[in-house]
Amino acid sequence: MKQLKFVSRETSTYMFEQYDVIVVGAGHAGCEAAHAAATMGSKVLLITMNLQTIAQMSCNPAMGGVAKGQIVREIDALGGISGIVSDETMIQFRMLNRSKGPAMWSPRCQSDRMEFAINWRDKLEKNHNVSFWQEMVTGLLIENNRVTGVKTSLGLDIKAKSVVLTNGTFLNGKIHIGEKNFGGGRTGESAAYGITEQLVTLGFESGRMKTGTPPRVDSRTVNYEAMEEQLGDENPEKFSYTNTPTLGKQNSCWISYTNLGVHDELRKGFDKSPMFNGRIQGLGPRYCPSVEDKINRFADKDSHQIFLEPEGRTTIEMYVNGFSTSLPEDVQYAALKKIPGFENIKMLRPGYAIEYDFFPPTQLKLTLETHLIENLFFAGQINGTTGYEEAGAQGLMAGINAHRKCKELDGFILKRDEAYIGVLIDDLVNKGTDEPYRMFTSRAEFRTILRQDNADVRLTKKGNDIGLASDLRLGNVNKKIENSEKLYKVLSETKVIPDEINGFLEKNNSANIREKATFYSLLKRPELSIENLKPANDTYYKIISEYSKDELEQTEIKIKYEKYIEKELLLAEKLTKFDDLKINPDFDYENLKSISIEARQKLKKIKPITLGQASRISGVSPADISVIMLHLGR
Predict the structure, then answer these.
(1) pLDDT tens for residues 17-68?
(2) CA-wise closest residue to 193 among 172, 175, 207
(3) Is 194 left (phi over 0), alpha (psi -120 to 50) or beta?
């Protein structure tokens, strides 16, 4: 680990070497931010309250999932690390939604929690531009509305050109278990104090959110015969487009269900529930509710699904996914024992809820820099999001832009038709959120072109241009594009006669051909695929045997969904045309008396940089946009 440099105490405080970027917090957002800025050439100081919990998986030991898997692949395509670490530490892989179209396919892996954190720390330590410091940051150094560093609990002033705050659930964090509550950012770790109070005095708006985690149980006390086994994919894939190892032996997950007996036990603790008796003020995640919230909101349901997930290959600890709770520990335990397979269960630690401060993200620019304080960036749960993947994506973008701001370069922004990351940040900045934000495929209007399989094609050139994705990565992507285009052309031109293919078509319940047909036209049929056509014809088999799995998949998707992709590209071009029309951030909206008061207030607060961004702000109508266009001379 790189050592910090101290100089004389005569200056009234310890002085560190001059940093370009200080990253506060070493969760998923902080790790990606530190790695990105350092890889691009900035001197980075990563400050955390505990060096032993870098990249900790505080909640479930998994990466990816619906829409989230797309984000991990985008992080990887840009040159981030989350996908590589996930590949190197996964113990199970599943591609979700395979029965649906490719726009819905979403990679997910079960991770070894301890190996994940160790692997991340190792990669950061090997980056010589990253230094580390263990201490609580209690405030920011501000001069002329510009951040110049941070203050620590030991009274140290550490200088930097920019600061990225990735505090997770630690800002004034409070943990709730039944009627008990105490300060903490995570179980066994103290909360962080001072930053919220300072930011509020500077004019920032803050709020409270809550999230939760389920109990962990001893795998040796589980009756697996009473549960359904959930296996990984037979041929597991990967997140990273680099040469990471392919997963071999996989660990199983297990499925069980709650029942009316479980629900009755849980209801016995409702009077002591901090969620129901008002002790928790913050709003929790809508799409990941606690088990008590589920049985309260969905009282007509007799059962809810429970996933039992291993925390790693070498530990007895298991995660009870679907049983997040803040009820008293004795109530949790009694209810758990009534779940099939859990009759003799031993609980290792109870579930809990945690409340924490966040800052509505409408106070940010699209670069994740704050409007009020220059060179100050927010990323992760401080912006009201939930999930490792959403945090990692924001950290990556904040790290990139903190580095570029130090070097006096333009901000790096992804549009909604370029990446799920672009959708995420655009939603946060323009619409804000009053509950923990989670990404879904339904949030992306261009999801047919924002697939998990083509993230490298969409983004690696951009990552390479800014100095994050390597030349080797870009070379591999260019080869993939070139080969996919070549294969598409060959399949479009190579024809097969009826006598050579009709027997195969009949066996596969596909209509015979009456004259020569191209393999391209055959692959348009939903019942045929690039893989199952292999035994159909020797010429075809010889053609496709020269290409990689990724190249075959890209080509097949293009052939089968060509018209849909073309239609979506045209729609994206139409809907994003206003994104090229720039607006001065200091534009005087107050003098536009013909637009609504709400529009004026929102536009003044968010300060959109393009007409497209202005059009996506909640409360700004098409009529308001027309008025602004007139004043811009359009």
Answers:
(1) 889 999 999 999 999 999 999 999 999 999 999 999 999 999 999 999 999 9
(2) 172
(3) left
Tokens found for residue 47: 């400050």
Phi and psi at residue 218, in whole multiples of 5°?
-85, 115
What pLDDT score was predicted for residue 9?
39
Beta-strand ranges (E) seen in 234-383 are 253-257, 305-310, 317-321, 347-349, 352-358, 376-378
Average pLDDT of the chain, as a whole number: 93
Q: What are the φ and ψ backbone dihedral angles of 554, each rounded to 5 degrees?
A: -60, -45
Q: What is the largest CA-CA distance in the chain?
A: 91
For residue 293, the one-letter residue type is: D
Sign of CA dihedral 85, 91, 96, 101: positive
Query: Helices marked H in 79-130 — which ranges?
Result: 82-89, 113-125
Neighbours of 128 (CB within 10 A): 9
Q: How far apart are alpha carbons 305 and 84 in whole angstroms?
A: 31
Quick: pLDDT tens for 358-379.
Answer: 999 999 999 999 999 999 999 9
Distance CA 634, CA 629 (A): 5
DSSP-assigned letter for residue 441: G
Nearest to 136 by CA among 4, 25, 33, 14: 25
Where helices occur in 228-303 by DSSP H, the ranges are: 260-267, 291-297
By the 10 Å C-beta count (0-12 exposed, 13-18 middle, 19+ buried), 425 is classed as: buried
CB 365 within 8 A of CB 583: no
Q: Tell me, what's the pLDDT at 17?
A: 81
Dihedral-angle region of residue 465 (phi above 0 means left; psi in -120 to 50 means alpha; beta otherwise): alpha
Does residue 53 contact residue 169 with C-beta atoms inside 8 Å? no
In the block, tokens 């008590």 appear at 292
Q: Find where tokens 């003020």 sit.
A: 281
Tell me the pTM. Answer: 0.93
Distance separating alpha carbons of residues 358 and 606, to the nearest angstrom: 17
Residue 290 CA to residue 276 CA, distance in Å, equals 12
What is the per-residue pLDDT across 499-515, written as a single tens digit (0 to 9) for each?
Answer: 999 999 999 999 999 99
Enclosing H/E stretch for 44: strand 44-48
Residue 592, both tokens: 């536009």
**Pairing mode, if any, of strands 106-111 and 207-213?**
unpaired
